[in-house]
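Section handout 9: paired folding examples.
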Amino acid sequence: MTVRGKDRQAVTPLAPGDQTLAATAVPLPSGLRRAWQTGKWRRWVPVVATHAVLLVGAVFILAPALWMLSTSLKDVSHLFDYPPQWIPDPVRWDNYVKALTALPFGRYFLNTAFVTIMSTVGSIGSSLLIAYGFARLRFPGREFLFYTVLATMMLPGQVTMVPTFILFRSLHWVDTYLPLFVPLYFGRPFFIFLLRQFFLTVPKDLDEAARIDGCNSFQILSRILLPQIKPALAALAIFSFMWSWDDFMNPLIYINSSDKWTLALALNGFQSPLDPGMPVLHLVMAASVVVALPAIIIFFLAQRFFIEGVVISGIKG
């Protein structure tokens, strides 16, 4: 029998992919059918699997933060409910008012901001000059000094904690902010290493051309090299800010007076002035959300520079 017209397409032999689909007898959308026929599904599977793994990882990472936010809005009677209540009912926004008025958090905020700004300026400025010297200047023992700086990164902080405390006590710096930021004005080894590597990616021909035009070493650094490494400086500034803002161990060791506490110490010594026997978990979580908020905001505002500074490996054309 001769098949004519549109009926001829109905008896066209099926491709291998179509035969598999026909055997399943499950109708698929046209987009999925074309993907199956052309083999594009092989490229979709790794993408979908990667996003699924990242999604599961993100849920595990964000779960503590979501639990902190949820607890900060709970009523005292629901703090220890089982099963846990993720969405507070009722929502107690006044927990934040109680938490921020229980202690002089305004003063602690200013203390922390002062230490953080001084630490960031000192670590970035000193590390920049030291890294420039290691990358661009020639002097006897340069390599030895650089490797010595790297070797200090191998020492745990617990090893130098006691000798450093004895040194600062002999200088009468205990119960002051000086031990928290003065050492950073002598360079931070991790920052020195990273900045030196960035400087090495900039061609030295630019330095030579600038010297021919009459520039000295400081002018070369400020006019030629700094514009090339702005993303790296932004990334290191974010690192320094977060490390200083969240630092707990150093203030715990050197700060004794409660009026000089940083926010990290304030959270550690948090107690409710209303009732000493009342659970303060919800107030502690509310204060923790407020303390973490500045670091989160700064990261999201500067994340473009942070990511660019981490992945940069050369000069843009």
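Moving on to protein 2 of 2.
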Amino acid sequence: MAREISYIGAINEAIHHEMTRDDTVLYFGQNIATTEGDPFLTAFGSDRVRVTPISETAEIGMAVGAAMAGYRPVVELYMAEFLLVAMDQVVNEGPRMHTMTGGQVKVPLVLKAGYGFTAGWAGQHTGSIYGMFMGVPGLKVALPATAADAKGLMASAIRDDNPVLFLHHYLLTLDEGDVPEGEHVVPFGEADVKRAGTDVTVVATGWMVPRALAAALQLAADGISVEVIDPRTIAPLDMPTILESVAKTGRLVLVDQATRHGSVSAVIAGEVADEGFSLLRAPIKQVTALDTTIAYSKPMEEYVLPDEAKIVGAVRDVLNVDRAETPA
């Protein structure tokens, strides 16, 4: 049975459920278990729930070692930019150990971090930097856009035998949605068609998914039918679902909060051009952040970032229609 809970509540529920189900799951971070009343500390004790030093290199390094020793650590990093302090552990150690040992060693590790906090936090806490991780061999990357997907993808992340980067959008934190009770697992590499349509395919990630759905609703009033797809994971990336949709609509708009040249949308555009060019009836359109650092002021944020109006404009461009017309 589903009930309505917040996005962050769904993530915490998944971690709690997996820790109850599997006593090898550990949970630690710089702001974890800082008081005796911490709910995870109370439920699972200090052997499994611990506060760490203020050192991303240390906490992620410890997690890689614990994973190699048979545990399943979840590391709370809070902000995705903090991953940059420990890129050797994130990119060069954890994801490569399985292959370098000929498959003898598994590294079941989850790195949990928030991203995209575009609410006046300026340049160093607002980034959508997932694009730089999606091409790292051995590293999986999840980008849930709904509370239910957040719970299901976290469960899959903890159960996976590979390192997983689990990125949750800050501006979705308190958004509520219907979430199944008990065990709920969303497989990696399976995109979700959030809205069916026939005129144009819109692929959006993270916080852009609700923006894309709002744009689709607005366009529907003008008789334009938009199919909205959420990849949910970008590594692995479900290209078959995207290509199937493009085969139906013949048009593709990609919506991504990341900067144009560091985006998932650029990768998807390349894949569609390579594998499905003949399916397209119009050029692919990308709606991304501009290639610049995000300023702290609200007008500048809004200028740099994608929004509903920009998505609507891109859809009209690929359909070659103005506001008063409907697609052929």
